[in-house]
């Protein structure tokens, strides 16, 4: 049974590999393997909801993606969310292009009647790329130290956008930015 759906922004292969390197280092140290186990893919979540109208959302995302260009990204810091999931993440340097991209997507979905929850509203969305989930509190400091050894910033491009069902993660569709063909 699905726990929900998310629209995710995916990276170019080189940037994706840099993020996967962080996942693998944390897994080898037995700090966190959850993202690997749920078969996730490195991404920034743009929107999430417990339920969706799949055909409508696929049309909205396909149309939206065709009008966008790839986005430059630079992950320049490491962070954690103050919740029970003990998520560690790479944080992109805030850019107007990334913030506008997410705001335009949500505006487009709102026009189609999709409710945008507080955490994805323009004034409260926090862009990040998870590198670990369910990190034991006793290993959080060690995980931060491991991530600090990454050569930062990690730069690249956001290249496509997709919808996943979770958990485990199952991609339902994805589209290359600036192209009307499925990725």
TrEMBL record:
It comes from the Eukaryota. This is RNA ligase/cyclic nucleotide phosphodiesterase family protein.
């Amino acid at each position: 049974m699905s726990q929900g759906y998310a629209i995710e922004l995916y990276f170019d292969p080189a940037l994706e590999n840099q993020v996967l390197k962080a996942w693998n280092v944390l897994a080898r140290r037995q700090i966190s393997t959850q993202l690997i186990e749920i078969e996730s893919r490195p991404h920034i979540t743009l929107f999430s909801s417990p339920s969706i109208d799949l055909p409508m959302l696929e049309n909205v995302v396909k149309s939206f993606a065709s009008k966008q260009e790839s986005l430059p990204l630079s992950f320049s810091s490491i962070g954690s969310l103050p919740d029970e999931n003990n998520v560690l993440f790479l944080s992109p340097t805030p850019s107007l292009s990334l913030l506008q991209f997410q705001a335009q997507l949500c505006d487009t979905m709102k026009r189609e009647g999709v409710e945008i929850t507080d955490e994805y509203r323009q004034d409260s969305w926090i862009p990040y790329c998870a590198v670990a989930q369910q990190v034991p509190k006793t290993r959080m400091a060690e995980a931060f130290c491991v991530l600090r050894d990454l050569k930062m910033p990690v730069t690249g491009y956001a290249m496509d956008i997709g919808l996943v069902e979770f958990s485990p993660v199952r991609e339902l569709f994805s589209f290359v930015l600036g192209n009307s063909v499925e990725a």
